[in-house]
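[Automated response] Your request has been received and processed.

Submitted sequence:
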Amino acid sequence: MRLVDRVCSPRKLAAIVATISIVYFIGALVYRRDVDIQNIRNSLPYVTYDKPVCESQQLAVQTFNSTYTHADGIYANGYETSYVPGTEDVFLMIKTGATVLWQRFPIHIATTLPQLPHFAIYSDAADIVAGIPIIDILANTKRTTKESSQFETYRQQQALLAEHANIELTEAGITGGWQLDKYKNIPMVAHGYRAYPTAKWYIFMDADTYILWPNMMRWLSSINHEDMLYMGSVTYLGGKTPFVHGGSGVVMSGALVRKTFGEEPGLANEYEEYSQSHCCGDHILSHAFRDRGTIPVLSGENYPYVAWRFQGGYEGDLQAEPPISVRFKNENWCKEIVTFHHLTAHDIEKLYEFERKYPRDYPILFKDVYHEFVMPYLRDDRQNGWDNLADIREYSNDREKDPKSPQVTAYNSYDNCSTACQEWEECMQFRYRPGYCGLSNEIRLGRKHMDGDNSFSSFWRLDRIRQLRKSSGCDPIDAVQEEGAFFRKQSKA
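Generated structure:
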């Protein structure tokens, strides 16, 4: 007998209805909802097309209680809530996957979620973490799409769950979750709209992303949510088509989401066939917006002032990065930063503690991130076994050589690479390994790199870095410890 047949039998259906009633009653005692629960229920089935009605009811059983507001003052699992002003008008969507859920999401329970009241968590398998339901946002995908080869991972996950297999999906050897990821963005935004149709801002991020909410809300308070705005770190597909990079965080105005998802209930499923032959859910969402006349904002310093907030939104074709990889430079030194991406749980915890050092009305700038995560660890001597990620000018023995360029031999030795950096007046740092030399006019910390004789050696021009700070207008060099304070402290211990 099929699962749907068993669930749809009158006796089973009556039991499910009774269960929903009990869960709803208990939920009403635990959570105070500012979002109407009926709107959340209605948001779940979307458009079911070729699936039996009961299949949509199954999803409702799993997820109708997935969007809620924290109880006053205290978060359900004991963490204090302290909402950032303005977040009551935001609906946050966090996207993850079943195979990485437990590695990436739990840290947000103590860091991100206590800062705002309205959110939902989306994955490719239903689950629950510390009382927070995880929505299977692919449950209402068309049957024909689910039968495609790209949903093999989904079918494997569902088979394990149907057997009540007591095994972490990360340990089950299931791969290919990235193929499912591109199907999530559009139905996720559709669900977010139905859950909170009056939000001023809809924001989504990946579970390995962190948002500085005071900075985010200070910025959003300066722009109009009634404008058709689709903002973030703009990158390009094939170097031509711009879209907002999902992992760096995506901000959509309420006006845009209501004009699109609000007026077109079937939009949640409309792009499934397109998704089968195209990459990336953030690009597919951008394609849907473009079909309706909205393109990503490339505003720079002009309204709506995206600037460097997402690390790459000013120039395009860059993404948000973790602190060790942020590209610090003169153009962004005194600018506000909002998001970080490609983070570990440990990175998120460090950013959370860093953020708490400042009053919420203090704008955290790139230079503040530099002071905390980079400056103490820079040294004025050669660092062997370290990759500082210098990559603005690159020279190697497998590239075409230009005899007119004085840097053509930069890859021949560490000293030649150092000379090339010295001769380029903007050069802040370089890295070298046999056959390669990379120079940069940006400042990045990078990471340990151990590869035997092929390991990188790195160097930072601290004199030029200090001159950049001195000339920035926002970073007096005598106000904080100078570069390398960590190692000076270690040497005195």
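Summary generated for your ticket: The chain has 20 helices and 18 strands. The radius of gyration is 25 Å.
If you did not submit this request, please reply to this message.
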